[in-house]
Design goal:
With 669 residues, the chain is mostly helical. The chain has helices at 2-5, 11-30, 32-49, 51-70, 89-100, 103-118, 127-142, 144-163, 175-178, 185-219, 228-248, 250-275, 278-301, 311-338, 345-377, 390-398, 404-434, 443-463, 466-503, 518-525, 531-555, 596-600, 633-651; strands spanning 560-565, 570-575, 583-593, 611-619. The chain has 23 helices and four strands.
């Protein structure tokens, strides 16, 4: 009990998650062979009989996101209408890229194209066709389809967390379907699933990353062998760095490491591009991109049902990849959502689908096509013989380039940083799930997740149970693919209401300006206000209007209160509601910069300062406000009433329950 009282952990999430995680890991450690065998049979049944579920699910994700880019929903912002991105575009792309692919790019960039190229199902083809197929299927597995999986989860999380101010949790994505039930057992069950899936995915990936680092250090004669002792040392150092990075927060550790890694990755890419068969690589990338575009829909819908010879390969590669990306999507989606506040849906989807995909294509072309070219023209088939040893294949490939030792050390450095960024962002995400997105957690709690990752990964490596855990992760992808389809339904339902809500105009009973005070308004239009004059307007005209309105509300049995603030000066009237969101109408002192052309314009009054001030209205639901400096006291009262009339009309409609939830009362104005 004291453990939970000294932490921000949610007991309903952490206890069942730890029981399941430790239970599965112990089975994999104590009975690695039998556990792996049983899980393999379950996986084989799913991949053979239910592979169409993965194919259809991933296809729907791709088409759904493409639709959003070109639809009217693309302009919706992930947050209030006036929110803006927290991170620069470069930092944002760097972080989502490092979290999304990471170690896998280094592990498979040579290994996967070479394995397709050397696979016996393509053995009857000419070298050229085998190389084209290897590039095409590598593009397919690491392209738009993979990022669409991440994009759906990331978009759903960011939309419901920042648009509706719900917790940054998978349970929030079901709000349109489950409403307040997301705060009970249903919500806990969803978060338990996300936490276990995230832990398993990170553990297995980091385990394979450690093996590759160990293999590279042996080839470079830094360590004498690939043994468990050296793997313990590697994990100890890297997890310590990950915990240090995680405790400094996303804004520092993760962002800085991601930026450094992207620079290192680009430098390594250019190194291989210019010292390898450059002309061949540029030409093969161009042709491969065209081949991918032309084959896009054939690849998307293909189940290989008419090609029985290729079915085992299809299960082992394409279906396994879709399951792997889906199993990783809670982790990657949560992290992408965490760093994407303020982006529009169109910007989010376009960037997540296109930019990492293009980089992956360039990366896989440079390394995969270089390896195939060297295998035919230089190595005399030596690289093909290493396809079953992917841990060492990247380093053996680099031996055919100048400065191979330097390049190998650079590879290890990049893998290490990818390892740390994957681990620290994973630690952050797991702690976020376990605490229902607590604002701040003690550092020991963040360190706990890192230590658990290290201990269980090493125990699994030593016992040979890592493969069983990977299989368990792939099995969980089937139910989660169905959950993701529900995310799409929730998003469509919520965004339809969203558009309707913000496009709702005032009712026909609203009264426009009259011409009664036109002389005063002309004088106001051609003058520029100081901060003091606008403050005075708020303290007199606005205060008088809102006070009179509050008193009149009271006579009608409605309790309204006046809130006033300083820096900048603002005043608002608020009507509290327990079930629906509060009604708020306020006026704040807003500054704007005047164009130099206006300052020099002789046909306008003299302006001494480039800045002018004006009173701007604002509302509780973050709709766009407007300038009210020309309003009289009675016109301000009328303006408040027409917004209140609109508010009452909206909350009376059942379909708007999503927007009028009392959760909206929790946001900070």
């Amino acid at each position: 009990m004291s453990f939970f009282s000294k932490s921000t952990f949610n007991k309903g999430i952490v206890v069942p998650s730890l029981l399941f995680i430790i239970g599965v890991c112990l089975l994999s450690i104590v009975f690695p062979t039998s556990t792996a065998g049983w899980l393999d049979r379950v996986k084989e049944f799913i991949f053979v009989n239910l592979n169409w579920v993965y194919v259809w699910a991933v296809t729907i994700f791709v088409l759904f996101l493409i639709y959003l880019v070109f639809s009217k929903f693309g302009n919706i912002r992930l947050g209030p209408n006036d929110s803006r991105p927290e991170y620069s575009f470069f930092s944002w792309i760097s972080m989502l890229f490092a979290a999304g692919m990471g170690i896998g790019l280094m592990y498979f960039s040579v290994a996967e194209p070479m394995q397709h190229y050397s696979n016996e199902i393509f053995a009857d083809n000419h070298y050229i066709n085998r190389a084209k197929n290897a590039q095409l299927y590598t593009f397919f597995h690491w392209g738009i389809h993979a990022w669409a999986i991440y994009g759906v989860v990331g978009l759903a999380l960011a939309y419901f967390a920042y648009r509706y101010r719900l917790p940054l949790s998978l349970r929030s994505c079901f709000y349109p379907l489950l409403k307040d039930k997301i705060n009970g057992r249903w919500g806990n069950a969803i978060d338990v699933f996300a936490l276990c899936s995230t832990f398993f995915g990170i553990t297995t990936t980091l385990g394979f990353g450690v093996v590759q680092v160990n293999a590279g250090l042996q080839i470079l004669n830094v360590v004498p062998e690939t043994s468990f002792f050296y793997q313990v040392l590697i994990v100890g150092v890297l997890i310590s760095l990950a915990i240090l990075s995680a405790t400094t927060g996303v804004d520092k550790g993760v962002r800085i490491l991601s930026n450094v890694n992207v620079v290192g990755v680009i430098a390594f890419l250019l190194f291989v591009l210019f010292l390898g068969p450059t002309v061949y690589l540029i030409g093969s990338f161009t042709e491969g991109l065209g081949n991918y575009v032309n084959s896009f829909f054939d690849l998307t819908f293909s189940t290989h049902v008419y090609e029985e010879r290729t079915l085992p390969w299809f299960y082992t590669w394409t279906i396994l990849y879709w399951a792997w990306w889906i199993s990783w999507s809670p982790y990657v989606g949560l992290f992408i959502a965490r760093i994407s506040r303020g982006r529009t849906i169109r910007e989010f989807v376009a960037a997540v689908l296109i930019l990492p995909t293009l980089f992956n294509f360039v990366w896989m072309s440079v390394f995969g096509n270089s390896a195939m070219w060297f295998d035919v023209n230089v190595a005399d088939g030596a690289l093909s013989t290493l396809v079953n040893n992917p841990d060492a294949l990247m380093f053996r490939f680099l031996e055919y380039l100048p400065l191979s030792n330097v390049a190998s050390f650079l590879v290890i450095a990049i893998i290490i940083i990818f390892f740390v960024t994957s681990a620290d962002s994973g630690i952050f995400v797991m702690n976020s799930i376990a605490t229902k997105n607590a604002v701040k957690s003690p550092k020991w709690q963040i360190s706990f997740w890192g230590a658990l990752l290290a201990i269980l990964a090493l125990m699994l490596l030593n016992a040979g149970g890592l493969q069983a855990l990977q299989t368990m992760t792939l099995i969980t992808a089937l139910p989660f693919s169905l959950i993701m389809l529900l995310f799409c339904i929730s998003l469509i339902k919520a965004m339809t209401i969203d558009r309707s809500y913000y496009e709702r105009d005032f009712s026909v009973s609203t009264v426009p300006w009259s011409g009664e005070y036109w002389k005063d308004r002309l004088r106001q239009i051609v003058s520029f206000k100081t901060r003091t004059s606008v403050d005075e307007f708020i303290k007199t005209t606005v205060s008088s209007a809102l006070s009179e309105l509050r008193d009149e509300f009271a006579k009608n049995g409605i309790e309204a209160k006046i809130n006033s603030f300083a820096n900048p000066t603002r005043m608002e009237i608020e009507i509290h509601h327990d079930v629906v969101n509060n009604f708020i109408y306020g006026v704040r002192n807003q500054v704007k910069v005047i164009s130099a052309y206006v300052i020099e314009e002789e046909n306008l009054p003299e302006v001494d300062d480039k800045r002018t001030y004006y009173p701007r209205s604002y509302f509780g639901d973050a709709r766009e406000g407007y300038d009210v400096q020309y309003f009289t006291r009675n016109e301000l009262i009328s303006d408040v009433l027409k917004h209140y009339e609109r508010f009452l009309e909206i909350i009376s409609e059942e379909k708007n329950e999503l927007f009028i939830s009392s959760n909206a009362n929790k946001h900070l104005r």
